Structure formats: structure tokens, C-alpha cells
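quick one, two chains, predict together pls
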Amino acid sequence: MAIAVKLDDLLHERRMTLTELAERIDITLANLSILKTGKARAIRFSTLEAICAVLDCQPGDLLRFEPEWDAGEEAA
Amino acid sequence: MKHQSATLPIAWISLRILVILNWLYGAAVLGLLAFTFVNESWFRRAIDVPAGTEAQPIMIGLRAIAALGLIAVPINHLILKRLLRMVETVSRGDPFVAANAYRLQAIAWALLALQLLSMVIGGIGKAIASKEFPLHLDAGFSTSGWLAVILMFVLARVFAEGTLMREDLEGTI
């Protein structure tokens, strides 16, 4: 998917573990792990809000559009 | 909350029994069809073809009906087996899978085939029936039967859409 989740980088910057974040936003570690590894199909606004509130960041810091190699080639 | 209901085990057992009964019905029809060739004169007496009536067209018609009845056996089997698999997915607690949408669609096509068979059988029955040889078959055009076919196609589509929505929901964090 062309949308990359930068949760790992944000956690590293904030010196926070995934388990700690899971506890603070009340989401299971398994679900948060799916989000971190980019395997999620969608993210709820409520989840986004909770993560941004705890990590003190903007949605844009968490998600980034990274065009896939094939898509870039087609555009060119 | 998971509801413990007796419906599913009853449905599963009933379907299993129907699968067996369907094959027994097929074997009986096949036996009957074979017997019309082995001992035709006895068969004519048994079905009481009145004297003076041309028996050959009636025999051909009845054999055709029996042969079409045999075609219904694998179609019935297809429906029953798919229903059985669907009941099993419900028992496992995960019925909203793509496979069940395909199963429903296959059942819809099978029901359509059965309706067409029924109409052909009904037509043959009417063709060979006469005042001297009245033949009443429970076959022919059926409004409720065709309604069931349409309903099944719609349900299959609804199920397919529902399955996609569920997949999306499952991947939503």
C-alpha cells in the first residue's frame, strides 16, 4: 500500500514502547502491531485522534504517502 | 454473546439425511427406469395403460421424465452439500466468508436448473396425459419456485457485499 505508517519512528522519538502506547490509548497490542507493520486496511478517526493525543503529533506525522515504484513508473 | 441453539445440529443432521435420501431416490428412479426396459409389459400393466390407448408414447414420456428425474439427483446433491458446508461455517462462528457467497450463488444456479427441469417434466406430463390416461405430476411452472431462484441470486449478492464489508471492518484499527 502507498500509505506508510510511521508509528515506529514516532515511538522511537518519544522513547515509548508499543505496549505502553497500547495501554494509554486502550487498543490491543495485537491491533496496534497490525497498524505499525502497515497491515491495516483502514484507521478510525478515533484511533488516529488517540494516537496523536498521546504522541503529541499531527496525523501527517503518523501517515505518509509513498508512491509505489510501479505507480511512479506509470506516471512517468 | 454466543447463543447455544439446537437449530444448527438439527439442520446438519437433516441435511446429512437428505443427502442419503437423495441418492436413494436416484437409485430408485434408476431402478425403475431400467425395469421399464427389462419388463415393459409388466410395467404397462402396473401403470394401468387403458386398452386401446397407444402405449408407446406414454412409455417414452415416462422414461424421459424418469431420466430428467435422474438429472435432478446431482443437482440436489450440489445444493445439499453446499448448504451443509454453510451450516458448518455457522457452527464454527465464521459464516461471513467469500466461500459462502460462492456457495449461495451455486445454489441459486442449481435452483434455476431445477425449475427448468420441473417445467420440462411438467410439459412432458401434460403431453402424455389424456382423458383415458390422466397423469397428475407435481411439476411445471411454479411462481414460488422462481421467486426462490431470484431471492437466492439477490441473497448471494448481498452476502458477497457483506463479506467484503466485513473484511474491511476486520482490517480497520
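DSSP finds six helices and two strands in chain A.
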